[in-house]
Amino acid sequence: MAKGSPHKKSGKSSSSADLVLSVFFKKPYISFNYKQISKAVGINDKAVRELIRQQLEILLKNKSLIEDKRGKYKLNPEKHPSFFPSKNYITGTVDMKQTGKAYIITDEPGPDILIAPYNTNRALNGDKVKVLLLPGRHGKKPEGQVVEIVKRVKEQFVGTLQVTRYYSFLIPDNQSIPVDIYIPNDKIKGAQNGDKVVVKIVDWPENSKNPFGEVLSVLGKPGDNNVEMQSIIAEFGFPLHFPQNVERDAENIDIKIKQEEINKRRDFRETFTITIDPEDAKDFDDAVSLCKLTNGNWEVGVHIADVSHYVKENSIIDQEAYERGTSIYLADRVVPMLPEVLSNNVCSLRPKEDKLCFSAVFEMTDKAEIVGEWVGKTIINSNHRFNYEEVQSTIVNEQGLYAEEILTLNRLASLLREERFKSGSFDFDTEEVRFKYDEKGKPIEVYIKQQKESNKLIEDFMLLANRRVAELIGKTQNNKPPKTFVYRIHDKPMPEKLETFSKFVAKLGYKINNKSTKTLADSYNTLLTSIKGKGEENMISNLAIRTMAKAIYSTENIGHYGLSFRFYTHFTSPIRRYPDLMVHRLLERYLANKPSVDKKEYEEKCKHSSDMEKLATDAERASIKYKQAEYMADKVGQIFDGHITGVSKWGIYVEIIENKCEGMVSIRDMEDDAYFIDEDNYTVIGRYSNKKYRLGDKVKIKVKKILLARKQIDFVFVG
Length: 719
Description:
Layout: H1 12-26, H2 34-40, H3 46-61, E1 65-69, E2 72-75, E3 89-96, E4 102-106, E5 113-115, E6 128-133, E7 143-151, E8 156-163, E9 167-172, E10 181-184, E11 196-203, E12 212-220, H4 225-235, H5 244-251, H6 259-263, E13 266-267, E14 272-277, E15 286-292, E16 298-305, H7 307-310, H8 316-324, E17 328-329, E18 334-335, H9 340-346, E19 354-364, E20 370-381, E21 384-387, H10 388-397, H11 403-422, E22 432-437, E23 443-449, H12 453-474, E24 487-489, H13 495-506, H14 517-530, H15 537-547, E25 552-554, H16 578-591, H17 599-632, E26 639-647, E27 651-656, E28 662-666, E29 675-678, E30 683-686, E31 692-694, E32 698-707, E33 712-717
Parallel strand pairs: 5-7, 13-20, 14-21, 28-33
Antiparallel strand pairs: 1-2, 3-4, 3-6, 4-5, 6-7, 8-9, 8-11, 9-10, 11-12, 14-15, 15-16, 16-19, 17-18, 19-20, 22-23, 24-25, 26-27, 26-32, 27-28, 29-30, 30-31, 32-33
Helix pairs in contact: 1-3, 2-3, 4-17, 11-12, 13-15
């Protein structure tokens, strides 16, 4: 009997089991069907082969074997660990493709692991899994087999319901979910055929290719604007509504500001104070004040809504805010972190109203040199609510309401900005796509939100407050250990990524100098300025950002590389970001000389906040892609000028110049030649004509079709 066999030779069944298993023991990584097993043990008789097939089913049932795909079996690593050394196991995250195959993004440095469709073991996109590494073929991507789902990342899915006489099934919106979900007709909650619904997986039997689920909520008919936006919210795991108890508790919060509370705070109600926000903003969580001191210096106050005064730690409202992690800014709406009574009313720094704040106040010279600072609780009364356009007009024309104060604030902010760039800060000024809508929510215009001086005025004062608050807690004297705090950190770029990016831009005529942080920042900023308005702008900007590490929240301070700050946090937006709320509470605690909090607990909170931030960003991008496709839906057949923004083996990505909508020209639709991709030079080349399509090239395209459900725009070349 082969080593590692769990069976004893007692009877016919046991002997046949040993015989079958002996084949698998010789080749533990290989899958076999019953015919192959029969051949391997020298059995040709049909009746005996049927017994082999039955034995395979028994071994599958007792988990000695696993089913790779229908009718093919493989040794179960969990049942026979001696054949699978521990060094051959890794953990990672599933990146599922539409075809059913997947790649495992490993926790440790190294290449992604390819998983064949029959080796995914019911894992889905985003799941945390344990993988058995399989013997690889020379020169090929390493392959593996999922042996355990460590953590199922989600159990709720959004899609279109197909109703039949006997059962229903969900076709998921997410193309990376390669299976339909079966639903008994008594579990569809009255949904009709073709409805958009939210479904929860309740069971996934080992012998079933498809999971079973039930409908949680019916969203409505596809194509309706509200339904589609709710679909995106639900798809990324965010709740569609606040629970009733959360709304009730928010409504019952005592909003009256007592004199006792005012006496504890520094009073700025008589100091010139304004808010500057987007025109359609409803939650104002930051304000700036300005006062000329008798010594000729300026006192600039950065006043932040004191959310922690109203939202107590571990309350029902706080728990809900923590789970959400952040507000979500979709293309046409905001999904707030806090109930609207708090975000838009109680906490919002509305003009002509007394409001409680947590403030960072700076004394600075006329050259924006900081000579004094104070952090603490305040009360303010904003003089006026400005939008960015109004402030920009004042800056350009040097006249308007409170022009003198605004121009002074802008001058001081400009000096802070100049100093920041001298110190090595990167200037990532990314484009933001915005839409104008008709009364039904359909986009009728696409435009780019420009970052102007008015935006940067606020940004630079917020950066200052975030940095100095982080320094206040993080900098210690006499080698004392720093107290646990929430930092916003940004690591250095990985050398290999930076090298790849440098080679890429070099082929387009641009240089990157990475001898030091300062030279790298300078060359990045020069590059981003040089590509303004060019075809390659979007592609290079996105690649430049991707080259950088992703900023996250952590209790371990490593500084913020992109800003060139040794200490940095998020203090300025507690209405829409949960980490800011944590920072406010910790700051209040430490200003009162209370002991440090548990680091492990706060690191977990930081990780959760970072994860939710990423999800929110993905949801926002999905909403923009949908709105772009919706905007182009009535333009099928129309011709536009565009720039090539990317190339892949599937096709060529083109961005329309006039509206910034991006789509793809499929290689299959390029019928004038046989085209192939030159990956090193980001070029698609005609095999016979030598016709070339390069990154940044200006082209003419025609809109071929719009697939709204996939948020996809298809083009064909013209001429």
